[in-house]
Write the structure tokens for this entry.
Amino acid sequence: MHANSMAGVPEIFHKLTDPRDPRGVRFPYHALCCLVFLGLLARISEMAVLVRWAKAHWEQLREPLGFTRPEAPSATCISRSLAKLSLAGGAMRPATLRRVFAEWLGLHGCRIAMRLDRFHRSTTGEILFYERRYFVTSLDPSQVSTLDLMRLIRGHWQIENCLHFVKDRWWDEDRHFLKRPGLAAVFAALTNAAISTLRMLPNPEPILRAETEKFQWNPTNTLKTFGFQIK
């Protein structure tokens, strides 16, 4: 992804309709979502840690994210607001959030559908195991061969090593316990989007954790990278 393509995060969250009751709203919904997303980019997945980080860098974060109040939101305010994204009906579902990010990252548009039949035979020729799987991809059919597709399918363990291991160990997803109904689904969608965004930066650090630590220590550069207006 090119550098100029990164400058679109504010518009993504502006597309989300605020599912909260307008009475008593203190913080803009898109600003809360942006704050959580930036925290996940910095490998901050605990609400209490996110609030402490926001307070420590509030002067840098407040105006670019769209907050108008002088104080940072509390952990309860953030979790209640995000949970409503999952519990609301219609267009306000985590699937919508994933689709919006997929469009921004350029991942939408299925071009190829495949069926893979896999089986194991005994030495006598008897079929001991049979499995059928289906795959879809946005790869251009004129630019990829059958052997290329087979090689990609055989490399499916990269999903475990490059995604689930990263989420479980570096973002502590397995130990991250969320009690509020609906919040876990939203957090999972935002975490996936944050990790995908980090991997598609134009000049990333060799180690993903090094990139997240840069974002932790210098939120201003993070805001510039993703198109937030800084005065």
